[in-house]
Design brief:
By secondary structure, the protein is an alpha/beta fold. The chain has a domain of 150 residues. The strands form two sheets. Strands 1, 2, 3, 4, 5, 8, 9, 10, 11 and 12 form a ten-stranded parallel sheet that branches. A two-stranded antiparallel sheet has the order 6-7. Helix 6 crosses helix 7 and helix 7 packs across helix 10. The longest helix is centred in the last third of the chain and has 25 residues.
Protein backbone atom coordinates (compact mmCIF):
# COMPACT_ATOMS: atom_id res chain seq x y z
CA UNK A 1 0.00 0.00 0.00
CA UNK A 2 1.26 3.44 -0.96
CA UNK A 3 -0.10 6.81 0.10
CA UNK A 4 -0.53 9.96 -1.95
CA UNK A 5 -2.15 13.37 -1.66
CA UNK A 6 -4.72 14.89 -4.01
CA UNK A 7 -5.23 18.64 -3.99
CA UNK A 8 -7.96 20.57 -5.75
CA UNK A 9 -6.28 23.74 -4.45
CA UNK A 10 -9.76 25.17 -3.83
CA UNK A 11 -9.77 28.75 -2.59
CA UNK A 12 -9.19 28.81 1.15
CA UNK A 13 -7.94 32.32 1.86
CA UNK A 14 -8.54 35.89 0.68
CA UNK A 15 -4.80 36.04 0.02
CA UNK A 16 -3.69 33.68 -2.75
CA UNK A 17 -0.05 34.40 -1.93
CA UNK A 18 -0.65 33.14 1.62
CA UNK A 19 -2.55 30.11 0.36
CA UNK A 20 0.24 29.16 -2.04
CA UNK A 21 2.91 29.47 0.65
CA UNK A 22 0.91 27.45 3.18
CA UNK A 23 0.26 24.72 0.61
CA UNK A 24 3.96 24.57 -0.22
CA UNK A 25 4.71 24.15 3.48
CA UNK A 26 2.25 21.23 3.53
CA UNK A 27 3.95 19.78 0.46
CA UNK A 28 7.22 19.88 2.39
CA UNK A 29 5.50 17.82 5.10
CA UNK A 30 4.35 15.25 2.54
CA UNK A 31 7.96 15.00 1.40
CA UNK A 32 9.25 14.64 4.95
CA UNK A 33 6.77 11.93 5.87
CA UNK A 34 7.41 9.79 2.80
CA UNK A 35 4.12 10.12 0.95
CA UNK A 36 4.53 8.57 -2.49
CA UNK A 37 3.18 11.45 -4.59
CA UNK A 38 1.34 14.75 -4.63
CA UNK A 39 -1.31 15.21 -7.33
CA UNK A 40 -2.93 18.55 -8.21
CA UNK A 41 -6.14 19.11 -10.17
CA UNK A 42 -6.56 21.49 -13.10
CA UNK A 43 -9.66 23.69 -13.05
CA UNK A 44 -10.45 27.05 -14.63
CA UNK A 45 -12.82 29.94 -13.83
CA UNK A 46 -13.90 28.41 -10.54
CA UNK A 47 -12.89 28.63 -6.87
CA UNK A 48 -12.46 24.85 -7.03
CA UNK A 49 -9.03 25.35 -8.60
CA UNK A 50 -6.52 28.03 -7.66
CA UNK A 51 -3.73 26.25 -9.57
CA UNK A 52 -5.18 26.42 -13.10
CA UNK A 53 -1.68 26.09 -14.54
CA UNK A 54 -0.40 22.85 -13.01
CA UNK A 55 3.03 23.16 -14.60
CA UNK A 56 3.67 26.53 -12.94
CA UNK A 57 2.57 25.24 -9.55
CA UNK A 58 4.47 21.97 -9.85
CA UNK A 59 7.67 23.78 -10.79
CA UNK A 60 7.52 25.33 -7.31
CA UNK A 61 6.73 21.92 -5.78
CA UNK A 62 9.80 20.48 -7.51
CA UNK A 63 12.03 23.04 -5.84
CA UNK A 64 10.55 22.60 -2.34
CA UNK A 65 10.84 18.79 -2.24
CA UNK A 66 13.52 16.13 -2.63
CA UNK A 67 11.84 12.71 -2.72
CA UNK A 68 8.14 13.33 -3.22
CA UNK A 69 6.82 12.46 -6.65
CA UNK A 70 4.24 14.85 -8.09
CA UNK A 71 2.08 15.58 -11.07
CA UNK A 72 -1.20 16.85 -12.49
CA UNK A 73 -4.32 14.82 -11.97
CA UNK A 74 -4.98 15.69 -14.66
CA UNK A 75 -3.72 17.90 -17.46
CA UNK A 76 -6.92 18.75 -19.35
CA UNK A 77 -5.56 17.82 -22.77
CA UNK A 78 -8.34 19.62 -24.68
CA UNK A 79 -6.79 22.92 -23.56
CA UNK A 80 -3.20 22.25 -24.63
CA UNK A 81 -1.12 22.42 -27.75
CA UNK A 82 0.73 19.09 -27.54
CA UNK A 83 4.13 20.49 -28.59
CA UNK A 84 4.02 23.03 -25.77
CA UNK A 85 2.97 20.38 -23.29
CA UNK A 86 5.80 18.05 -24.35
CA UNK A 87 8.21 20.83 -23.42
CA UNK A 88 6.57 21.43 -20.03
CA UNK A 89 6.53 17.72 -19.17
CA UNK A 90 10.22 17.36 -20.01
CA UNK A 91 11.16 20.47 -18.05
CA UNK A 92 9.31 19.32 -14.92
CA UNK A 93 10.81 15.84 -15.09
CA UNK A 94 14.31 17.25 -15.56
CA UNK A 95 13.93 19.90 -12.83
CA UNK A 96 12.85 17.25 -10.33
CA UNK A 97 15.36 14.55 -11.23
CA UNK A 98 12.68 12.29 -12.69
CA UNK A 99 9.84 12.62 -10.16
CA UNK A 100 6.95 13.58 -12.44
CA UNK A 101 3.71 11.55 -12.53
CA UNK A 102 1.82 12.36 -15.73
CA UNK A 103 -1.95 12.52 -15.29
CA UNK A 104 -4.01 13.08 -18.44
CA UNK A 105 -7.74 13.48 -19.08
CA UNK A 106 -10.50 15.15 -21.03
CA UNK A 107 -11.73 17.42 -18.25
CA UNK A 108 -14.95 16.86 -16.32
CA UNK A 109 -16.58 20.28 -16.85
CA UNK A 110 -17.87 21.32 -20.31
CA UNK A 111 -18.04 24.92 -19.09
CA UNK A 112 -14.33 25.13 -18.37
CA UNK A 113 -13.22 23.93 -21.81
CA UNK A 114 -16.03 25.95 -23.41
CA UNK A 115 -14.66 29.21 -22.00
CA UNK A 116 -11.52 28.55 -24.05
CA UNK A 117 -13.51 28.13 -27.27
CA UNK A 118 -13.25 24.34 -27.28
CA UNK A 119 -16.34 22.33 -28.18
CA UNK A 120 -16.90 19.83 -25.34
CA UNK A 121 -18.38 17.38 -27.84
CA UNK A 122 -14.93 16.98 -29.39
CA UNK A 123 -13.37 16.03 -26.05
CA UNK A 124 -12.85 12.33 -26.71
CA UNK A 125 -11.27 12.87 -30.14
CA UNK A 126 -9.10 15.75 -28.92
CA UNK A 127 -7.92 13.75 -25.93
CA UNK A 128 -6.90 10.72 -27.97
CA UNK A 129 -5.17 12.82 -30.63
CA UNK A 130 -3.30 15.02 -28.16
CA UNK A 131 -2.20 11.99 -26.12
CA UNK A 132 -0.90 10.26 -29.25
CA UNK A 133 1.20 13.32 -30.12
CA UNK A 134 2.46 13.61 -26.53
CA UNK A 135 3.64 10.03 -26.29
CA UNK A 136 5.22 10.18 -29.74
CA UNK A 137 7.04 13.43 -28.94
CA UNK A 138 8.32 12.11 -25.61
CA UNK A 139 9.89 9.09 -27.31
CA UNK A 140 11.13 10.41 -30.67
CA UNK A 141 13.52 13.07 -31.93
CA UNK A 142 10.90 14.47 -34.31
CA UNK A 143 7.11 14.63 -34.39
CA UNK A 144 5.28 13.47 -37.50
CA UNK A 145 1.53 13.33 -37.13
CA UNK A 146 -1.59 13.92 -39.20
CA UNK A 147 -4.95 14.14 -37.48
CA UNK A 148 -8.21 16.07 -37.30
CA UNK A 149 -6.94 18.73 -34.89
CA UNK A 150 -3.16 18.60 -35.29
CA UNK A 151 -0.76 18.04 -38.15
CA UNK A 152 3.03 18.04 -37.75
CA UNK A 153 5.79 17.19 -40.17
CA UNK A 154 9.34 16.58 -38.97
CA UNK A 155 9.07 18.92 -35.98
CA UNK A 156 12.34 18.63 -33.95
CA UNK A 157 12.07 17.69 -30.28
CA UNK A 158 14.97 19.11 -28.27
CA UNK A 159 13.91 18.09 -24.75
CA UNK A 160 13.61 14.65 -23.21
CA UNK A 161 12.21 13.49 -19.87
CA UNK A 162 14.49 11.80 -17.34
CA UNK A 163 12.11 8.84 -17.09
CA UNK A 164 12.08 6.69 -20.18
CA UNK A 165 10.11 6.18 -22.26
CA UNK A 166 8.07 8.80 -20.37
CA UNK A 167 6.80 9.53 -16.83
CA UNK A 168 4.18 7.14 -15.38
CA UNK A 169 0.72 7.79 -16.78
CA UNK A 170 -2.38 8.39 -14.63
CA UNK A 171 -6.08 8.61 -15.43
CA UNK A 172 -9.12 9.51 -13.33
CA UNK A 173 -11.82 6.88 -13.83
CA UNK A 174 -15.45 7.10 -12.75
CA UNK A 175 -16.79 3.83 -14.16
CA UNK A 176 -15.58 0.20 -14.09
CA UNK A 177 -15.73 0.24 -17.89
CA UNK A 178 -12.48 2.24 -17.97
CA UNK A 179 -10.57 -0.63 -16.36
CA UNK A 180 -10.01 -2.77 -19.46
CA UNK A 181 -8.26 -0.10 -21.51
CA UNK A 182 -6.24 1.28 -18.61
CA UNK A 183 -4.99 -2.19 -17.68
CA UNK A 184 -4.11 -2.96 -21.29
CA UNK A 185 -1.91 0.15 -21.44
CA UNK A 186 -0.58 -0.20 -17.87
CA UNK A 187 -1.91 3.17 -16.72
CA UNK A 188 -2.26 4.05 -13.04
CA UNK A 189 -5.81 4.93 -12.01
CA UNK A 190 -7.73 6.85 -9.39
CA UNK A 191 -11.34 5.71 -9.19
CA UNK A 192 -14.10 8.12 -8.15
CA UNK A 193 -16.60 5.59 -6.78
CA UNK A 194 -17.69 4.12 -3.45
CA UNK A 195 -15.51 1.26 -2.15
CA UNK A 196 -17.84 -1.42 -3.59
CA UNK A 197 -17.75 0.26 -7.01
CA UNK A 198 -13.99 0.58 -6.80
CA UNK A 199 -13.81 -3.16 -6.12
CA UNK A 200 -15.57 -3.85 -9.41
CA UNK A 201 -13.06 -1.64 -11.21
CA UNK A 202 -10.09 -3.31 -9.49
CA UNK A 203 -11.32 -6.81 -10.32
CA UNK A 204 -11.70 -5.92 -14.00
CA UNK A 205 -8.30 -4.26 -14.05
CA UNK A 206 -6.56 -7.24 -12.42
CA UNK A 207 -8.29 -9.71 -14.74
CA UNK A 208 -7.20 -7.75 -17.82
CA UNK A 209 -3.67 -7.45 -16.38
CA UNK A 210 -3.44 -11.22 -15.97
CA UNK A 211 -4.85 -11.84 -19.45
CA UNK A 212 -1.81 -10.05 -20.85
CA UNK A 213 0.47 -12.43 -18.93
CA UNK A 214 1.71 -9.80 -16.49
CA UNK A 215 2.84 -10.43 -12.94
CA UNK A 216 0.62 -9.18 -10.10
CA UNK A 217 3.66 -7.68 -8.35
CA UNK A 218 4.03 -5.29 -11.30
CA UNK A 219 0.43 -4.06 -11.07
CA UNK A 220 0.16 -0.27 -11.48
CA UNK A 221 -1.26 1.83 -8.68
CA UNK A 222 -5.05 1.80 -8.36
CA UNK A 223 -6.34 4.30 -5.86
CA UNK A 224 -9.40 5.78 -4.21
CA UNK A 225 -9.59 9.40 -3.10
CA UNK A 226 -10.94 10.48 0.31
CA UNK A 227 -11.06 13.63 2.42
CA UNK A 228 -8.99 12.88 5.53
CA UNK A 229 -8.97 14.74 8.83
CA UNK A 230 -7.15 13.34 11.88
CA UNK A 231 -7.27 15.04 15.28
CA UNK A 232 -6.82 14.16 18.97
CA UNK A 233 -10.59 13.55 19.36
CA UNK A 234 -13.35 12.34 17.06
CA UNK A 235 -15.39 15.47 17.82
CA UNK A 236 -12.59 17.86 16.86
CA UNK A 237 -11.87 15.98 13.63
CA UNK A 238 -15.56 15.88 12.70
CA UNK A 239 -16.01 19.62 13.32
CA UNK A 240 -12.99 20.48 11.19
CA UNK A 241 -13.98 18.10 8.41
CA UNK A 242 -17.60 19.29 8.31
CA UNK A 243 -16.62 22.94 8.07
CA UNK A 244 -14.06 22.33 5.32
CA UNK A 245 -16.17 19.89 3.34
CA UNK A 246 -19.17 22.22 3.09
CA UNK A 247 -17.00 25.00 1.64
CA UNK A 248 -15.21 22.58 -0.69
CA UNK A 249 -18.55 21.21 -1.91
CA UNK A 250 -19.82 24.73 -2.53
CA UNK A 251 -16.77 25.32 -4.76
CA UNK A 252 -17.44 22.01 -6.52
CA UNK A 253 -20.95 23.24 -7.42
CA UNK A 254 -19.85 26.74 -8.43
CA UNK A 255 -19.79 26.51 -12.24
CA UNK A 256 -22.80 24.23 -12.48
CA UNK A 257 -24.81 26.54 -10.24
CA UNK A 258 -23.55 29.56 -12.22
CA UNK A 259 -24.96 27.97 -15.36
CA UNK A 260 -28.25 27.01 -13.73
CA UNK A 261 -27.81 23.24 -13.74
CA UNK A 262 -27.00 20.53 -11.24
CA UNK A 263 -23.99 18.23 -11.20
CA UNK A 264 -24.33 15.69 -14.02
CA UNK A 265 -23.20 12.84 -11.77
CA UNK A 266 -23.68 12.96 -8.03
CA UNK A 267 -20.37 11.25 -7.33
CA UNK A 268 -20.07 12.64 -3.80
CA UNK A 269 -23.08 13.19 -1.50
CA UNK A 270 -23.88 16.80 -0.66
CA UNK A 271 -24.64 16.08 3.00
CA UNK A 272 -21.67 15.68 5.32
CA UNK A 273 -23.15 12.70 7.19
CA UNK A 274 -23.89 10.88 3.93
CA UNK A 275 -20.37 11.54 2.65
CA UNK A 276 -18.93 10.12 5.88
CA UNK A 277 -21.18 7.07 5.72
CA UNK A 278 -20.15 6.43 2.12
CA UNK A 279 -16.44 6.61 2.90
CA UNK A 280 -15.81 9.81 0.93
CA UNK A 281 -14.76 11.50 4.18
CA UNK A 282 -12.78 9.76 6.91
CA UNK A 283 -12.31 11.77 10.08
CA UNK A 284 -11.52 11.07 13.70
CA UNK A 285 -8.71 10.04 15.99
CA UNK A 286 -5.84 8.02 14.47
CA UNK A 287 -7.55 4.83 15.68
CA UNK A 288 -10.90 5.80 14.14
CA UNK A 289 -9.34 6.74 10.81
CA UNK A 290 -7.13 3.66 10.80
CA UNK A 291 -10.03 1.27 11.37
CA UNK A 292 -12.31 2.87 8.77
CA UNK A 293 -9.61 3.05 6.11
CA UNK A 294 -8.53 -0.53 6.74
CA UNK A 295 -12.12 -1.69 6.25
CA UNK A 296 -12.73 0.37 3.10
CA UNK A 297 -9.33 -0.55 1.63
CA UNK A 298 -10.14 -4.24 1.97
CA UNK A 299 -13.57 -3.78 0.40
CA UNK A 300 -12.14 -1.76 -2.49
CA UNK A 301 -9.05 -3.91 -3.08
CA UNK A 302 -6.86 -0.89 -3.80
CA UNK A 303 -3.08 -0.54 -3.46
CA UNK A 304 -3.02 3.28 -3.31
CA UNK A 305 -4.64 5.57 -0.71
CA UNK A 306 -5.12 9.04 -2.16
CA UNK A 307 -5.86 11.58 0.57
CA UNK A 308 -7.28 15.09 0.43
CA UNK A 309 -5.50 16.59 3.43
CA UNK A 310 -6.32 20.29 2.80
CA UNK A 311 -9.69 21.52 1.59
CA UNK A 312 -12.20 24.27 2.27
CA UNK A 313 -11.01 26.66 4.96
CA UNK A 314 -8.80 24.24 6.91
CA UNK A 315 -5.98 26.27 8.42
CA UNK A 316 -2.36 25.31 7.94
CA UNK A 317 -2.17 24.19 11.58
CA UNK A 318 -5.27 21.99 11.24
CA UNK A 319 -4.01 20.36 8.04
CA UNK A 320 -0.47 19.95 9.37
CA UNK A 321 -1.77 18.28 12.54
CA UNK A 322 -3.79 15.91 10.39
CA UNK A 323 -0.82 15.08 8.16
CA UNK A 324 1.49 14.40 11.10
CA UNK A 325 -0.98 12.18 12.98
CA UNK A 326 -1.85 10.31 9.80
CA UNK A 327 1.78 9.73 8.86
CA UNK A 328 2.86 8.62 12.32
CA UNK A 329 -0.12 6.58 13.49
CA UNK A 330 -2.22 5.57 10.47
CA UNK A 331 0.11 4.92 7.55
CA UNK A 332 2.37 2.40 9.34
CA UNK A 333 -0.64 0.30 10.35
CA UNK A 334 -2.02 0.16 6.81
Amino acid sequence: MKFGVFDHMDRSSPSLADQFEQRLKLVELYDRYDFHAYHVAEHHSTPLGMAPSPSVWLAAVAQRTRRLRFGPLVYTLSLYHPLRLIDEICMLDQMSGGRLELGVGRGISPYEVGYFGVDPETGKERFEECLSVLLHGLTHATVDFSGKFFTFKAVPVELQPVQRPYPPLWYGANTPDHATRLAKDGINAVVGLRPVGVRSFVERYRAQWREHGRDEKDLPLIGMSRHIVVAPTDREASDIARRGFLLWYDALLHLWRHNGVGLPRQLIPAEFEDAVAGGYIVCGTPATVRDRMRFDNEVAGINYCLCRMAFGDLSYDEAAQSVELFAREVMPAL
